[in-house]
Amino acid sequence: MDAPPATLPPAAPYDCGTMLLHWLHAVLILGLIGLGLYMAGLPKGEARSAAIGLHKSFGVLAFALVAVRLAWRLRHPPPADARLTAAEHRLAAAGHRLLYALLVLVPLAGYLSSSFTRYPMRVFGVVLPKAGREDEALNAFFNATHGLLAWTLAALIAAHLGAVALHALQGKPVLARMLPGRQARG
């Protein structure tokens, strides 16, 4: 049986920097998903172009933020939670690795899609270099890849939230560890 010890110490919260980066990134990613869904339904024109420009700008920001989060995580590993079983720890680690991979791959595919259009790649008005020149086939491939990975990320976020809810129902309030000013209890 793969159960945690009978006497459990209180679960340590994450550090303030990790919390800030997590919630900032969560808001940014959820906003990007919402904006992506919104702009997909817009007809071609000024409003759609503005939404795409905003999506690209915040997508590049999300890509930069994941780099900061990964660097932070190397120096600030997650605190142990003795309330979780070894299997739960393995699943959580695998889920977090997949989340981080998608947080890198989704904006990368979006950038590559934009790199193969005739339009300049602007981030908050600043033109960025592109990885290629106009190529409809490559643009379509990377655009489809971006969409597929974004839906996969959305599904994984839903699973992540589901795991948080499941742990709460099991009396293991893991969310409290990621909330400022709160101490999770064992």
UniProtKB/TrEMBL annotation:
<feature type="transmembrane region" description="Helical">
    <location>
        <begin position="148"/>
        <end position="169"/>
    </location>
</feature>
<keyword id="KW-0479">Metal-binding</keyword>
<keyword id="KW-1133">Transmembrane helix</keyword>
<dbReference type="Pfam" id="PF01292">
    <property type="entry name" value="Ni_hydr_CYTB"/>
</dbReference>
<dbReference type="InterPro" id="IPR016174">
    <property type="entry name" value="Di-haem_cyt_TM"/>
</dbReference>
<dbReference type="InterPro" id="IPR011577">
    <property type="entry name" value="Cyt_b561_bac/Ni-Hgenase"/>
</dbReference>
<keyword id="KW-0813">Transport</keyword>
<keyword id="KW-0249">Electron transport</keyword>
<keyword id="KW-1003">Cell membrane</keyword>
<keyword id="KW-0408">Iron</keyword>
<dbReference type="InterPro" id="IPR052168">
    <property type="entry name" value="Cytochrome_b561_oxidase"/>
</dbReference>
<feature type="transmembrane region" description="Helical">
    <location>
        <begin position="20"/>
        <end position="40"/>
    </location>
</feature>
<feature type="domain" description="Cytochrome b561 bacterial/Ni-hydrogenase">
    <location>
        <begin position="14"/>
        <end position="181"/>
    </location>
</feature>
<comment type="similarity">
    <text>Belongs to the cytochrome b561 family.</text>
</comment>
<keyword id="KW-0472">Membrane</keyword>
<feature type="transmembrane region" description="Helical">
    <location>
        <begin position="52"/>
        <end position="72"/>
    </location>
</feature>
<protein>
    <submittedName>
        <fullName>Cytochrome b</fullName>
    </submittedName>
</protein>
<keyword id="KW-0349">Heme</keyword>
<feature type="transmembrane region" description="Helical">
    <location>
        <begin position="92"/>
        <end position="112"/>
    </location>
</feature>
<keyword id="KW-0812">Transmembrane</keyword>
